[in-house]
Amino acid sequence: MHEGVAAYVLGVLDEEEVEEFERHLDTCARCQAELKEMADIPSRLDDLKHSAAASEDDPPPMSMSR
Amino acid sequence: MCPVLGHLTGRLESADIDAEHRIAVLYQEFGGPLLRHVRKSTGNDLQWAEDVVQETLVRAWRHSARLQWEPSLIWAWLLTVARRIVIDGRRRKSVRPHEVEPPEVDMLAVPDSSERALSAIVVAEALRSLSEEHREVIEQTYLRDRTISEAAEILGIPPGTVKSRLYYGIRALRVLLQDKGVAG
Ligand SMILES: [Zn+2]
Question: Looking only at Cα atoms, what is the longest distance across chain B?
Fold first, then answer.
């Protein structure tokens, strides 16, 4: 159950899984702590996503063609 | 990053606070920071960003027990709620093609600061240092706007495995970014 925190932070869980995880989160100090630690990661990944989409000249940093 | 909210808990806890006042306090405390954050994902679409903030705070208000958490945890939680609302909105737009803005427009609308460009390079480098298994699940889920279930199908591995690899992958990524000084 604890491992769901990363998928939760990234927003890649299905709706029912979100509700299930949030019920767990309400009572799990470990996941609450990891939620805070991971909260900034999606924004960092967005920096990469946006720059890869915006720059046509440079090859994308990874195989990220949409 | 997290707004300074030392006095929030007391303000939301006071016994005489009514529902309307409570949501006003939420707006006052989180509205601005949340809007600045959400606008990074919605580009120039200010109306959409404002709708996302409103929906986020309404959901927060419905789960008022979580508003007793410490402010930095409330903030982290609000970011996840707002992110899901943006992702849902993007998905809804993409199943109605005539309403879709070309993604390039959306992306380019965000002023590309040199700070952000630098962060992109650092993040790409960190992803390359991850194990293939970890990099793959991050790429096939978040970076391609897919859920765990969708990625599992594409990768031909069980959803539980994707979830677990994502967890260890994100932890490893965080450590790498922390070493490079771009994650808190
Ligand atoms: Zn847990």
Answer: 55
Domain co-membership, B173 together with B120:
yes
- Residue contact B65–A9, C-beta within 8 A: no
A1 C-alpha vs ligand 1 centroid, how far in Å?
Answer: 6
CB of B141 within 8 Å of a chain A CB? The answer is yes
Same domain, B82 and B137: no
pLDDT digits (tens, 9 = 90+) for B112-125: 578 888 889 999 99
Query: Looking at chain B, which residue has its C-alpha nearest residue A15?
Result: B84
CB < 8 Å to B5, chain A: none
B166: CB partners within 8 A, 6+ apart: A3, A6, A7, A10, A12, B137, B138, B141, B148
Residues B11 and B88 in one domain: yes
**Among B44, B68, B97, where does a domain finish?**
B97
Residue numbers in A near B103 (CB within 8 A) = 53, 66
Predicted complex ipTM exceeds 0.90: no
Q: Cβ contact (<8 Å) for B75 and A39?
A: yes
pTM: 0.82
Distance from CA of B24 to the nearest CA of A (A): 24
Same domain, B11 and B87: yes
What is the structure's pLDDT at A52? 67
Q: Which domain holds residue A17?
A: 4-43
Reported as a single tens digit per residue, the pLDDT across B44-100 is: 799 999 999 999 999 998 898 898 899 999 999 999 999 999 999 988 887 765 544
Token pair recorded at residue B74: 């409330």
Distance CA(A49)–CA(B154), nearest Å, equals 20
Q: Residue A9 and residue B110: Cα distance in Å, rounded?
A: 23
Number of domains in chain A: 1
Q: What CATH number did the domain enclosing B51 receive?
A: 1.10.1740
Question: Which residues in chain B are closer than 8 Å to A10, comparing Cβ atoms?
Answer: 83, 141-142, 166, 170
